[in-house]
Amino acid sequence: METSVVHSLPATRRHTLRVRMVSLVGPVTVAAGVIWAILQPYRVTLLHPRGQSFWWLVVEPPLLVMGVGVVFALLVARPLIADLEDGHAAAR
Known about the structure:
This protein is an all-alpha fold.
């Protein structure tokens, strides 16, 4: 007895090294900011805000690094990755 079963597997997307590296820049930057805040907690005055103004609390170097990582991941990396994948697909 013979049965022919056809399986349709979704096409796996193989990312190039460039796409992987661009997609990692944002999360690595956020992780660097978190590690910096852990290693130097005195830089984050949110932990002890006595007598500090609003801007002193908001403009903290580790928080700015984390913010830049998030902004890069959302606003720069996504369109850049889409462009890289389109260019890679067109080259095939």
